[in-house]
Amino acid sequence: MPSGRILRFLASLSIGTLAFGLSTSRADEHPAPKVVTDETMEAGVRMLAMRDQHAELGFVGGFIGLRASRNLSLGLYGDVSTLARTFDACRENDSCPTQYGRFGIFARVHLAPAAFVDPWLSIAGGGTTRGKLGADMELTLGADLRVHALLAFGPMGLAIVPLSGGAPIRFGGGLRATIAF
Description:
Blueprint (H helix, E strand, L loop, with lengths): L3 H26 L11 E11 L3 E13 L4 E15 L1 H6 L7 E10 L6 E12 L5 E15 L2 E12 L7 E11 L1
Antiparallel strand pairs: 1-2, 1-8, 2-3, 3-4, 4-5, 5-6, 6-7, 7-8
């Protein structure tokens, strides 16, 4: 005769299986609204303001990516500087180009992808055309405010760390908007 532990285990397993079966049948009757899931494409725009000891810069950029899972996005980005104000140290020797572009790949981790406020962290790396071709890395922290199942916008803060070319580390912030499809 089976012991009490085995009977309790089998009873718990049966109740759990029954509850799971009922919950999945109800989900089939009333499907949930579409939310960002695995293999959802996403695209968006971002506007950034950056500053270092030589200049204040404004960027407009875009990105396109794929949700590899609910929490992980992988993709491509590109930014172009749109406005700049250089400081006196740059004007004297013209060694601080202000018009340039950035491009590369990113990985973004979403911490609460189904919530109204979805905080995220991102790391990116790529090229820059600041004076000459170089490389940089971007670390970004932000939050998406989900206004619709497929539309979000929110603030972001970032640091751009040059990997070549001797440019200073830049800090900044901005806004981004994302649409999933």
